[in-house]
Amino acid sequence: MSKDTTRPIPAFIDLGAQREKMGDGLAKALIAVLESGQYVLGPQVTEIEQQLAAFCGAKHCISCANGTDALLLALMAEGIGAGDAVFVPAFTFVATAEVAVLVGATPVFVDVRRDTFNMDTDSLEGAIGVANANGLKPRAIIAVDLFGQPADYARINEIAEAHGLVVIDDAAQSFGAALNGKKVGTLGAYTATSFYPSKPLGGYGDGGAIFTDNDAKAELLLSLRNHGKGPGQKETEEIGLNSRLDSFQAVVLLEKLKLFPAEIAARQVAADRYSARLGAAAKVPELMAGASSVWAQYTIVTDRRDALATACRQAGVPTAIHYTSALHKLTPYREFPTAPDGLPQAEWLSERVISLPMHGYLSEAGQDTVIDTVLGALGSGAGSVAAE
């Protein structure tokens, strides 16, 4: 009988393997919530907030219903609204721009870098000039840490200070990463993250959190997430949201947080293997000096994306494209201002990026299946593109 040489096809994100790793601790914790009857903002919510703040070194963690609300609440805490400009990268998930519109402000789109996928600070400075020329008041920068790597906060914070802007770190994909010895959660005035199931630290439903070191803003956020009624307040004092975290999601996060450091390390091992094997065939991700990533996505860039996607589909290898369009090309956002030199890198990347399976339980055999499929489709050097 011939030897079976088949190799496993990896899941894009293997939540099942993670569930097995947790054992029966999660089930016991969920039953405890059922028996307590405290299903929203129970004691487990306070506990996960404390543990998340301690994990990243932030003074305050305020949980909420989802990552979009986390961004929205930060803008609300700053009183940002009509006539204000919020600077957002053009290559990211739509929620980053969506929240600016929801508070009545104007998103101004900023280009990104090909090497890190994150906000280009030269484009940011140009966009501030555009906002001023259009009679808008520059108020906030939402800097996205795309695919798991922090943006260039040293320079972003310098620009913000020079122009009197607040910096909000959209860390929906980067919680657990660090820059120059500081963890995500402490790099901007506010950090907003998501606990959507596919995130590096995800629940089994929606959830989010805001991190800040500002005591007064933390107290305000506690009120804003609960219809404008803060802890101990008898009456509603602000116009807020219904954005409270369920106790069930809190216990899921408490259990997953125990595994999180090991998963981050495993993701880095997988990323290193990808980069070592695929660098000659496609443009692989680059980290800034002093930065770490949690590799929410492992995204490569190739001029032959369609051919690669077809080959992966035929081989049963899952892939995803984040994102197929720059935000300023989407119908609801076409009329908003952009940086003066346009957004060529965001457009260029949206035509060439493709993400490969990445999670903390990716086996070498499964990863080899992905690598061999990519190399078979692109060949050595066939899909290479310029970094800049």
From TrEMBL:
<dbReference type="InterPro" id="IPR000653">
    <property type="entry name" value="DegT/StrS_aminotransferase"/>
</dbReference>
<keyword id="KW-0032">Aminotransferase</keyword>
<feature type="active site" description="Proton acceptor">
    <location>
        <position position="199"/>
    </location>
</feature>
<dbReference type="Pfam" id="PF01041">
    <property type="entry name" value="DegT_DnrJ_EryC1"/>
</dbReference>
<feature type="modified residue" description="N6-(pyridoxal phosphate)lysine">
    <location>
        <position position="199"/>
    </location>
</feature>
<dbReference type="InterPro" id="IPR015422">
    <property type="entry name" value="PyrdxlP-dep_Trfase_small"/>
</dbReference>
<dbReference type="InterPro" id="IPR015424">
    <property type="entry name" value="PyrdxlP-dep_Trfase"/>
</dbReference>
<dbReference type="GO" id="GO:0000271">
    <property type="term" value="P:polysaccharide biosynthetic process"/>
</dbReference>
<keyword id="KW-0663">Pyridoxal phosphate</keyword>
<keyword id="KW-0808">Transferase</keyword>
<dbReference type="GO" id="GO:0030170">
    <property type="term" value="F:pyridoxal phosphate binding"/>
</dbReference>
<comment type="similarity">
    <text>Belongs to the DegT/DnrJ/EryC1 family.</text>
</comment>
<protein>
    <submittedName>
        <fullName>Aminotransferase DegT</fullName>
    </submittedName>
</protein>
<dbReference type="InterPro" id="IPR015421">
    <property type="entry name" value="PyrdxlP-dep_Trfase_major"/>
</dbReference>
<dbReference type="GO" id="GO:0008483">
    <property type="term" value="F:transaminase activity"/>
</dbReference>
